[in-house]
Design goal:
Elements (H helix, E strand, L loop, with lengths): L12 H23 L6 E5 L5 H9 L4 E6 L2 H11 L4 E4 L12 E7 L8 H10 L1 E12 L6 H13 L8 H4 L5 H10 L3 E14 L2 H5 L8 H8 L2 H14 L8 E13 L3
Parallel strand pairs: 1-2, 1-4, 2-3, 4-5
Antiparallel strand pairs: 5-7, 6-7
Helix pairs in contact: 1-2, 5-10
Length: 267
């Protein structure tokens, strides 16, 4: 029997920052370097979350303008604090972007596509607001294999309770693989579509540094952890600890892989 549904919680920005936001901040500059967009372009960040990718755009890409769209009010407030007046922020959804047709040059999205109900509709709307010759691009975590901090959690969760397998992001989200991302972008009519892997180190000072972000409840794995009673959560914690490669000084060296995809709007 499948585990009962646990909502994917996206309400509070600060706990999310400690969970995966800090690692997304490492992926974002590498993603932008791969895109290689010249300065002076009009950018849109769809599902900006707490502002990790947006901050990198401001620091690295010299945008003419940067607009951000995010459905979560709590995340948007964190992004507003992080970005200040340098970005225009809107509360809205990826499938109904609050922009007119062909009004930006580059549309990007970090770690969002797996969490919208209709990814093809989201990419289609991203294409709609992009000017001819512009770029649409995104990245998502490799939940199936390369996101080690989550992989250790879900492998332990399933070992403790096999029904948890239905909640594992690696099983739930087919877009965590490059072929699926390429098919999605080509299906939206984008040209020259390609996908690459981006890998970053995710070092933890201790097991507490690894485990405590799961207690913030933000995202599928933390939401599952906090849905358990205290005894079950303690058993899960111990199983996770057994699986992690802790060094003699207690540090834990993991890596996180994201898959990035890009395509162009025909001139």
């Amino acid at each position: 029997m499948a585990e009962r549904a646990v909502p994917d919680t996206w309400e509070r920005g600060d706990p999310y920052e400690q969970y995966v936001g800090r690692w997304s901040r490492q992926v974002a500059p590498r993603f932008l370097a791969w895109l290689g967009v010249p300065p002076g372009r009009r950018w849109l960040d769809v599902g900006c979350g707490t502002g990790a990718l947006s901050a990198a755009i401001l620091d690295q890409a010299e945008p003419a303008t940067l607009t951000c769209v995010e459905p979560s009010g709590g995340f948007l407030e964190t992004a507003r604090r992080n970005l200040g007046p340098r970005a225009i922020l809107h509360q809205g959804t990826a499938t109904a972007l609050p922009l007119a047709d062909a009004t930006v040059d580059v549309v990007v999205s970090g770690l969002m596509l797996n969490f919208v109900p209709e990814p093809p509709a989201a990419v289609a709307d991203m294409r709609r607001v992009t000017a001819r010759g512009g770029t649409v691009a995104a990245y998502v975590w490799d939940y199936a294999e390369g996101m080690q901090l989550m992989r250790a959690f879900w492998d332990a969760a399933v070992a403790e309770n096999p029904a948890a397998a239905s909640l594992d992001e690696g099983a739930r989200f087919p877009l965590c693989r490059p072929a699926a991302l390429t098919t999605l972008f080509e299906g939206a009519g984008l040209t020259g579509v390609e996908a690459v892997a981006i890998e970053v180190p995710t070092p933890f000072a201790s097991f507490a540094d690894y485990w405590e972000p799961f207690l913030g409840g933000q995202g599928p794995a933390p939401a599952y952890a906090m849905s358990l009673d205290e005894a079950a959560r303690a058993r899960l914690r111990d199983r996770v600890r057994e699986r992690l490669p802790a060094a003699a000084d207690g540090t834990i060296a993991l890596t996180a892989r994201a898959w990035a995809v890009r395509g162009a709007v025909a001139p």
